[in-house]
Automatic annotation (TrEMBL), chain A:
It comes from the Archaea. Its main location: other. PANTHER family: PROTEIN DIPZ, THIOL:DISULFIDE INTERCHANGE PROTEIN DSBE. The keyword Calcium does not apply. InterPro entries: Redoxin (IPR013740), TAT_signal (IPR006311), Thioredoxin-like_sf (IPR036249), Thioredoxin_CS (IPR017937), Thioredoxin_domain (IPR013766), Thioredoxin_ResA/DsbE_sf (IPR050553). Residues 26-172 form the Thioredoxin domain. This is TlpA family protein disulfide reductase. It is found in: Cell envelope. The keyword Heme does not apply. Keywords: Cytochrome c-type biogenesis. GO terms for biological process: cytochrome complex assembly.
From TrEMBL, chain B:
The keyword Disulfide bond applies. Keywords: Copper, Disulfide bond, Metal-binding. Cu cation binds at residues 90, 94, 187. It comes from Halobium salinum. SUPFAM superfamilies: Thioredoxin-like. This is SCO family protein. Disulfide bonds join 90-94.
Length: 173, 223
């Protein structure tokens, strides 16, 4: 209950700050507004755009950065979890690092391959998704059910067991 | 009320030269002649804070820039400046602060205004953070030491860190022993946007600042 209240407050706040063409609600009660991010051509990912959370699908959103040491540890868990859930859950990892100034899409791809990422990789240089999800730091994980409702969120390094439970819960719901 | 609060804050921090800014601190129609940005709503707008907030004069403290062998003032900047406090061994909050400023630096480089902004991240861990550490940290964080006037700063001693940083900016950093015999710090996450005249335009708190907000606020100061 507390989680839900926090979540609702977070969404209300995000609606004010993040309003604009890139933020849209899918209209379901309790659903979080989706944010469209650029997707990067990388292993398991193609260049384009993706609404997050992915409408109509259970989604795991992973906010990270290439300089973030705990995010590397988080990737180890996600790779193993993706093997088990990748056919039923959409995985989306998103960094808010801006390209340029010594950081390129090739650097991001290199990091991604080096950490065995094999799902949708997104870039959010204006931190819109971070804002919309109310993420207070990274790594930050969010699970949304197929109706776009956030069912679980975790700031900081999350255990593999807790992520698996969260995904099973969202799939059952 | 504001004036009294400010006086108390100056008294508490012992900020030298703070009185010079008093005349301009009480503006008309809710504005402030020393700031370009309007009064913020929410946190940082009113009340007693251990750090300088909107319209207050930046404490004129100096730190070493070990990569250039110079002393740098946080107040005498001449251009819009972002100031934050961190340490390079920090795993969570500080990379978020530095990463956010790095995103602003990248915007400045990409959009061609790198000469109109300055970044002054100050470590409170002078025992470990020196020029070599700063250079490696810049590499890791994709910070350019040659663009956007980015200068990593350090106090000259542990005592100076306590006096200058905790004393003037209320960062409240406190050493915490880690399991491996190393140490970390508890500390406030603070980013200050100071205008070219040395007055605070914004005091952003929280571990995950939004660089887009920084870019937008900075754009108003550059006009």
């Amino acid at each position: 209950m507390t989680d839900r209240r926090t979540f609702l407050a977070g969404v209300a706040g995000a609606g004010v700050v993040g309003g604009g063409a890139w933020v849209a609600t899918n209209g379901l009660p309790g659903a979080t507004p989706t944010t469209t991010v650029e997707t990067v051509d990388a292993r398991g990912s193609t260049a384009g755009e993706q609404a997050v959370p992915v409408p109509g699908e259970v989604t795991l959103v992973d906010l990270f950065a290439t300089w973030c040491a705990p995010c590397e540890a988080q990737m180890n868990s996600l790779v193993s979890i993706h093997e088990a859930f990748g056919d039923r859950v959409r995985f989306v990892s998103v960094t808010n690092e801006r390209f340029g100034n010594g950081f390129t899409r090739d650097d991001l791809r290199e990091w991604w391959v080096g950490h065995e990422g094999n799902w949708t990789l997104g870039a959010d240089p204006e931190s819109r998704l971070q804002e919309a999800l109310g993420a207070g730091g990274i790594p930050y994980l969010v699970v949304a059910d197929a109706d776009g409702r956030i069912t679980w969120r975790h700031g900081g390094l999350a255990s593999e067991a807790s992520i698996r439970r969260a995904l099973e819960g969202a799939l059952d719901g | 009320m504001r004036r009294r609060r400010f006086l108390r804050s100056v008294g508490a921090t012992g900020a030298a030269g703070g009185l010079a800014g008093l005349a301009g601190c009480v503006g008309t129609f809710g504005g402030n002649p020393n700031t370009t940005l309007g009064k913020p709503s929410g946190p940082g707008a009113d009340g007693d804070y251990p750090y300088p907030t909107w319209g207050e004069e930046m404490p004129d403290v100096r730190f070493q820039n070990p990569l250039a062998g110079e002393a740098v003032s946080l107040a005498d900047t001449g251009r819009p400046t972002f100031v934050t406090f961190f340490f390079t061994n920090c795993m969570t909050v500080c990379p978020g602060l530095i990463g956010a400023l790095r995103n602003v630096q990248t915007d400045a480089v990409n959009e061609g205004y790198a000469d109109a902004v300055r970044f002054l991240p100050v470590t409170f861990d002078p025992e470990r953070d020196d020029g070599e550490r700063f250079r490696a940290y810049a590499e890791k964080m994709n910070v350019s030491l040659d663009a956007g006037d980015w200068r990593f700063l350090r106090p000259e001693s542990v005592a100076a860190a306590e006096e200058k940083i905790n004393g003037n900016f209320g960062i409240g950093f406190e050493k915490q022993p880690a399991e491996d015999g190393n140490y970390m710090y508890n500390h406030l996450a603070l980013v200050l946007l100071v205008n070219g005249e040395g007055y605070v335009e914004r005091a952003y708190t929280g571990p995950s600042p939004n660089p887009t907000t920084f870019v937008e606020d900075l754009a108003k100061l550059r006009k």
